[in-house]
Design brief:
Number of strands: 3
Shape: rod-shaped
Helix content: 40-55%
Radius of gyration: 27 Å
Distance between the termini: 89 Å
Number of domains: 1
Number of helices: 3
Order of helices and strands: HHEEHE
Strand order of the largest sheet: 1-2-3
Strand content: 15-25%
Largest sheet: 3 strands, antiparallel
């Protein structure tokens, strides 16, 4: 007998050691889940930014306004106008940028940024971050500015 009235030995120290061994794995797992959620949020924000900019591009082909809309819709990811690419392509050659806007031509808006994880292990694997990019493509419905109409919608 150990001298305790119920006959059981104390094992508080063993539980503390087990907890100390498992705690870093639990914290790392939770931080990884948090980073994964942050990455999904960043990508969804970037995709929505490209979609909203493309909605403007199909009726107004002014690249400065298109880039401003993209930046305005992605404040959480730090998107800048330099990270937004606007391309007008002819419908028959959808890979060559720089075509004159025409009805049925394609407006392609690509927004890109770098996601930097906060989890230490993931940061070691991707030290410069993870590149995220989203592209939205739509047919031009209104060529702007039209003759006799100085502004666009």
């Amino acid at each position: 007998m150990t001298g305790r009235p119920n006959g059981r030995r104390r094992s508080g120290g063993q539980s503390l050691v087990e907890f100390a061994l498992v705690l870093p794995l639990i914290v790392l797992t939770l931080m990884g889940i948090l980073d994964f959620g942050r990455g999904i949020l960043a990508y969804n924000t970037l995709a929505e930014s490209a979609r909203q900019a493309n909605r403007l591009a199909i009726v107004d082909q002014n690249q400065d306004r298109i880039k401003a809309v993209a930046v305005a819709h992605a404040p959480a990811v730090g998107l800048t106008a330099a990270n937004v690419n606007v391309c007008i392509t002819a419908a028959v050659t959808p890979t060559a940028c720089g075509a004159a806007p025409c009805l049925g031509c394609l407006a392609r808006v690509t927004a890109s940024t770098t996601f930097v994880p906060i989890t230490p292990v993931i940061s070691l694997i991707f030290p410069s971050g993870i590149g995220l990019s989203s592209t939205s493509v739509g047919p031009i419905e209104n060529v702007c500015p039209r003759t006799g109409r100085p502004s666009c919608p």
